[in-house]
Amino acid sequence: RQGIGLRRLGTTADEFQQDLLSSLYYRRGTTVESASPRDAYEALALTVRDRLAERRARTAAAHFASNPRWVYYLSAEYLLGAQLEQNLLYSGTGDLASQSLKVLGRTLEEIEDLDVEPGLGNGGLGRLAACLVDAMATRDIPAVGYGIRYDFGIFRQSLEGGAQAERPDDWAFQGNPWEFPAPDDRQTVGFYGHTEPVAGSPTRKSWVPGEIVLGEPSHMLVPGYRTETVNIVRLWRARGSEASFDLSRFAAGQYAEAVQEAVRAENISKVLYPDDSTELGRELRLKQQYFLVSCSLRDIIRRFRLRNEGWDDFAEKTVIQLNDTHPTIAIPELMRLLVDEYELDWDKAWSITRSTFAYTCHTLLPEALETWPVPLFERLLPRHLEIIYLINMFFLREVEARFPGDSDRLRRMSIIGEGSERRVRMAHLAVVGTEAVNGVAELHSKLLRETVLQDFADLWPAKFQNVTNGVSPRRFMKLANPRLSDLITEGLGDDGWLNDLDRLAGLERLAGDASFMERWRAVKRANKVDLAAGDPDSLTDVMIKRFHEYKRQQLKLLHVITMYHRIRANPAGDWVPRTVLFAGKAAPAYHAAKNIIRLINAVGATIAADPVVAPHLTVVFAENYNVTLAERIIPAADLSEQISLAGKEASGTGNMKLALNGAITIGTLDGANIEIRARVGEENFFLFGLDAFQAAEVQISGYHPREHYDRDAELKAAIDAITAGTFGGVGREVADSLLGWDEYLTLADYRSYLDCQEEVERAWRDPDRWTRLSILNTAHSGFFSADRTIADYAARIWRVAPVPVPKDI
Ligand code: 26Q
Predict the structure, then answer these.
(1) What does the UniProt keyword field contain (predicted)?
(2) What is the CATH superfamily name and number for domain 508-782?
(3) What ipTM does this complex have?
(4) Does 278 contact ligand 1 (Cβ within 6 A)?
(5) So which residues are the catalytic ones?
(6) What CA–CA distance (Å, rounded) separates 59 from 703?
């Protein structure tokens, strides 16, 4: 027994098998004879989960004993990925599981297919949240991630007649064995209603909500790799209160009306909004945000009070990181709790609030900066709007004191935007109410300081920082690419690189070793055979990310059409065989992006049906891109397409995953591409296109796509083919927008991109050169570990120290 009264779980094959059978009998309630594959899956998941739960119990005890400073990560999205394989790895029970499953007549591979990933996010921001909680646990940082347990995650994408179709993602339809419900920690959340003055207090108000909703938490375990720590992600689900069921209506036969209030309440966590840039002013979205914030803050305060008295230590013991502006209502909500409910005076409450929060921005697109109409805010959260007005008043006084008489500046900086309608600017609120603000790559942080948030950086220069994103080497190397990971481990002598990724630099000396190179190539080839998308000996050219005009899938497509024309014109040419693989979802209402998907599939079909071109060029669109699919594609990639217009992609993280897996980047000077290039070396990176400064100049002096079209015969031919109906008449809107008012300057980068692709082919034709490039990309990408990202946050933003968890607590 351990000090905290736990029975140690067995570590031998026999003990593991015993526990697996116990799970099957006692928790699943079935028998070996009648166990379905799902029974086997659930029993295994519970057995593995128990190993982590034991560590969780010790983690909680160690944290309780040390009463540390806590990191709370607030995010509307988490893309955690499949759990079984990860938890087998992090609990070191993979081999035991394979062995033990034999008693049930199953293989681990078939069981893993039943492990659905919770798709509780859209893309980069949600996956970043998952990589960061993984790295926090790995670095022994006491942390909780808070989020929403959506009933329906990001929609499932399929292609119908080459067009995107969407189906709901009922991810937990068959249950979710990884989740622990914690109904005792439920919270009550108010909406609507009005505020009333409090007698004898000028600042306090009492808010009388018009609707009450319950938030019920459950948590998933987040183990660290090769450490004892197991943190949690706590996800809130909305429920109607008992009062929301109207028994008298039910008795009167009005069944729908009887439950309508409960349905309304439960709709709050029903579905993830499938947009990865702001969707205009939806009330339910704002309700989701406040629901997350209100439940989480009360939970944070509850946890604080378990070990502390009063408020003096709150900001010392708590740092709350806001993942973009989505949880920014936490700022007025903490003020409301402190002032109205705990009766602190305004200044004291403000000083606590400001020193508790930090804000990470993930965008530069002006249309993606969240704003909410004042009338909507006022109706849904009347007290919060009053508090925001007060925050704004004190803030504008501060600005006025620093820049007297500069009314233009006041107007620009105000938290309330006064356009045709008044709107609450969430990014301004987030900057004013936090101690630190960071962008997610060097260029992004610089552009934040110099453009969108310039006035704020003038006022508070020290507040602005950069923390370059990172990714989990466990998930995106060890789990996704076991062959490469084994080879790396052999090359480096041990697998310590998995939580010290800078050690990959040791591969540099093997980049010229003939036998190592040969094996490196063989790994890539085997991964391509597994993926089974196109000829494994062709150049596998991948563009995998959300569909958005700024990311410029349309530029890649112009390249494909040009290759098609070239091959048709010269069928006997010495063509480099390519497989161009696209994957990604478009927001269901984003028609321009969906048109690009249709055009890709139409071009792909035309090429596949062309006996002259098909032997040299294949276009594949892989449906339903998600974390699981990314883990299959990334290890097979030769070329990584990172071709956004410079200045638009905040960071990118797929670019890092691909480089770590030995794909070479063709990219613009955007986001983290710049840092990848700086680290892997400019000779090992295919650079093209305008830089952010040049792009801005073109936009100012006037962009004339027609001039590029008229001047460049191949470009003209590519666009004309679309409009002439070569691809079945699909994509005319795409062609029109390329020649019309294209904010993303696609045609301006076309020639430079095509030239660069020829350089790619020159390198590809020399297999040794390509292999060297590939090894060097992996060797020099260690910086992009999320463990380094977390070390940066911990040192420069959070000022938190690790709390190791003893094995024998
Ligand atoms: C907001 C309001 C209403 C509806 C939707 C949204 C919303 C939802 C998701 C707005 C934005 C997002 C997601 C943004 C995102 O994923 N950004 C990406 O973040 C990555 C991690 O920092 C970066 O690497 C990418 O460059 C950035 O695009």
Answers:
(1) Carbohydrate metabolism, Glycosyltransferase, Pyridoxal phosphate, Transferase
(2) Glycogen Phosphorylase B; (3.40.50.2000)
(3) 0.98
(4) yes
(5) 362, 545-546, 551, 653, 657
(6) 57
